[in-house]
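We emphasize that the prediction below concerns an isolated chain of 77 residues; any contacts that depend on oligomerization or on bound cofactors are therefore not represented. The input was used exactly as deposited, without trimming of termini.
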Amino acid sequence: MTTIDLSQMKAGQTGKIMSFDGGRGLVKRLESMGIRCGVQITKVSGQIMRGPIIVRVGNTQVAIGFGMARKILVGID
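Result of the prediction step, given as a token string:
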């Protein structure tokens, strides 16, 4: 299993959230959106130049800023 950050995933790619590279505030904010360690996440789309990234967690789609996405580490098979 390879670990990359969410911003490096390709559109349509699915992985498992492994960890967060941020402080307690970031983790709390992500958890409020349903983004937690061990959850399956699918990247729906992303902008070419550092725009927001849209992900699907369960049945919910969430837009995440590029900087925040770089702090979410995802395991890819």
